[in-house]
């Protein structure tokens, strides 16, 4: 798990991503042909594949199912991290700087636990598939071309 903790509480994930170094690196095609998989709160980009808000066809439904299954382990990882360190779920009443240090420290400790195979069967409690119940960010058609090509090439049966 890689983490940046420098933003106050309710900052939207998109705001954080838009200000990140990794976004610039993806926009400069540094990781091409690889891409990120995000939830519906992110705009669809050439390098950031998001679910369709309202899939109309069977290939679109297949894409959404595959996209959600791909993203689900990451979502579960955050759940495991929060269950391992309940202070992350219950809320921290600390100065912002101290809060950021606690968040980073728990992430480091969590990674160390994983490296030492100190796992707990938290994954059994997670849902098999997450539902798309987020508000889809309004996006332009030019940003969906890669996603549409993937749906046509991979999820449409001959």
UniProtKB/TrEMBL annotation:
Residues 2-111 form the DDE Tnp4 domain. Its cofactor is a divalent metal cation. GO terms for molecular function: hydrolase activity; metal ion binding; nuclease activity. It is found in: Nucleus. Keywords: Hydrolase, Metal-binding, Nuclease, Nucleus. GO terms for cellular component: nucleus. It holds the Pfam family DDE_Tnp_4. Its main location: nucleus. Belongs to the HARBI1 family. PANTHER family: DDE TNP4 DOMAIN-CONTAINING PROTEIN-RELATED, PTHR22930. This is DDE Tnp4 domain-containing protein.
